[in-house]
Design brief:
Layout: H1 3-27, H2 35-52, H3 55-60, H4 64-67, H5 71-78, H6 84-92, E1 95-100, E2 103-108, E3 115-121, E4 124-130
Helix pairs in contact: 2-6
């Protein structure tokens, strides 16, 4: 048998395995993230960071305008007014995401009408303004 005859089945088998692996990884969420995925991730990261008192991570999810000059100090002052269980619940529930160009809204499941406005900064999405219930805004507008 020639070397070419032996290599051809191996090459074909390798191609098939790589193709199947690509399909499996894409189905598991590995691959390029869509705008919706990025918006959801930013929003969930922000809400969970606030719930955990992690102001540095929460501030990192904001646009420069939303951060202001003293983001972490400002958030630390507000944390006591926020209900961490409500924040975690909002992070775990579904969101209504709408994208229009470089702007998007992420509507939270509760309370009714709560939403974030996000802006695309390069390839990332950052929260530009938002609202909460019975407490100061999540983000200064």
């Amino acid at each position: 048998m020639s070397r070419t005859a032996i290599r051809t089945p191996r090459v074909l088998a390798t191609i098939v395995v790589l193709a199947l692996l690509a399909v499996v990884l894409t189905g598991c969420g590995v691959g390029l993230a869509t705008n919706m995925n990025k918006i959801s991730k930013t929003t969930v990261t922000y809400l969970k960071a606030l719930a955990d008192g992690d102001t540095a991570t929460a501030c990192a999810q904001l646009t420069r305008a939303a951060k202001g000059s003293a983001c972490e100090a400002s958030m630390k002052e507000r944390l006591s007014a926020l209900d961490s269980d409500a924040l975690k619940s909002a992070a775990d529930d579904s969101m209504d995401i709408e994208v229009q160009g470089a702007t998007a809204t992420a509507g939270l499941s509760e309370p009714e009408g709560a939403r974030f406005v996000l802006k695309r900064i390069g390839g990332d999405w950052r929260i530009d303004s938002g609202y909460t219930w019975n407490a100061p805004a999540f983000v200064d507008s």
